[in-house]
Write a structure and sequence with these properties.
The protein is of the alpha/beta class. 33% of the residues lie in helices and 19% in strands.
Length: 375
Amino acid sequence: MRGLAETIAELGQRGKTRTRVSRGGEGAELIEVKGFGFNPGALKMLSYVPQRLAPGAALVVVLHGCTQQATAYASDAGWITLAERFGFALLAPEQNSANNPNRCFNWFEPGDISRDLGEAASIQSMVKHMVRAHDLDCDRVFVTGLSAGGAMTAVMLSVYPETFAAGAVVAGLPFGMANNVQEAFAAMQGRRAGTALGSLVDQAAPTPRRKPRLAIWHGQADGTVASSNAQALALQWTQYHQLPQQPGEVHTRGGWSRSVWRAEDGQAVVEMNLLSGLGHGTPLAAGGDDPIGEVAPFMLEAGVSSSLEIARFWGLAPSEPASQSELWREVGDGPEQARAAGGLGQSIMASVAPHVPANIQRVISTALTSAGLMR
């Protein structure tokens, strides 16, 4: 007769299959979760939870690009490595060829990008399942993606703003740029952007409780999705947040430029990173003393890990070392002392954010601002 331990173990494995990560994941496993709930978009759910994950940990949703698989993207972009290093859970939804022949998320189909419909609703259902199943912090849920996954990231931030604290779009497009395949190709070429982009986000969800922050990454030599979409996306989200059209700060480091729009409390709300000479893909730092990610199709060595920098923007990873910060060159106006103070405050916030809930973060942010350590 089977023992109680074996029965419990079998029950725990029902509805789950494991997918071994063979590249860049240090032997980690992604788990397919079945029966997670409402799934009108017919997507597959894969997840990764580090061992000994602390209660109240953050959740990062990772959306792959066209022709990619969720497991390979999460591994090659370095997200599994970062989840292990900084202690957060991963959700990796996966598209299938029955939904889209190229396995792209359908970021241009009205039935997949509206609240409570299609693929967007499926991803939202997965998020709710992950938060409940692993006792995660519902105030620290983040989403990022590449290309079609980046465009779908903008969808999720727009239609479910109450779910996500922040997001990051890599080589993607603004929300609401297309309603069919023809319009999608025009948008990818940069021929669909208008001027009232923020209103598209405003109208996507009812009275949101919060407005997610956004980091944007794009190669300026991208021949698949024109880099003008990065500027359009920045315009959309600065309008949404009612920020000035021009960034408050612009910094450069070699061929990497970073434009930053901050709120009154000094927090970076929108950040746009452009990399000269980089094509279509996720920027990686796969070489060097601390490699993150692995070069593959649409996974491009750039000397900078966009995934690590995104985790820093979200407050899930510490700020970069001072020796690296000194390499930035500021472009344009902006008091040097205020910039230095803001950097110190942001560094403090980045260090404490992974360990405290959102309401405590707001108290610390207010205190730092009052002390002149954050703008």
